[in-house]
Amino acid sequence: MQSGSSSSSKLERNAMEKKRRMEMKVQFSKLAFLISTEQTSKKRMPPDVLLDKATSYVKQLKENVEQLKQRKEDMAGGSMLPVLALREHMDSTLEVNLITELNKNFMLYAVIGVLEEEGADVVGASYSTVGNKIFYTIHSQVYI
């Protein structure tokens, strides 16, 4: 009688193992779909290659998250530059104040060009550097 029970338990183990392999195959297919590229989507990858690509992909995502966190931190830390402020005085002068970051490529001539296109005559400009910020002041005469 023991041989009958051992053969049924062997059949159960085989069925459980087959079910486990099928489930793993489904999970590997889902993983392949998530990380597939145009080159890898046409061919089936062995599980070890798939896991290696998935690991690299997760590492890349982690780096991206860290970079985005750093950018968010930089933006929250007051680096929302450039800042532009305009002041019109009673004597028809216009003062333009700009604050930019030192390491950013800023085109002051473009701002002066806009002022001149709008009819202002630029009479002076100055700048000062404090830390990693540049403070520009442009004085212009407005003719009405």
UniProtKB/TrEMBL annotation:
It is found in: Nucleus. Residues 51-78 form a coiled coil. Keywords: Coiled coil, Nucleus, Transcription, Transcription regulation. The keyword RNA-binding does not apply. One of its GO terms (molecular function) is DNA-binding transcription factor activity, RNA polymerase II-specific. Residues 8-61 form the BHLH domain. GO terms for cellular component: RNA polymerase II transcription regulator complex. Pfam families: HLH. Transmembrane segments: none annotated. This is BHLH domain-containing protein.
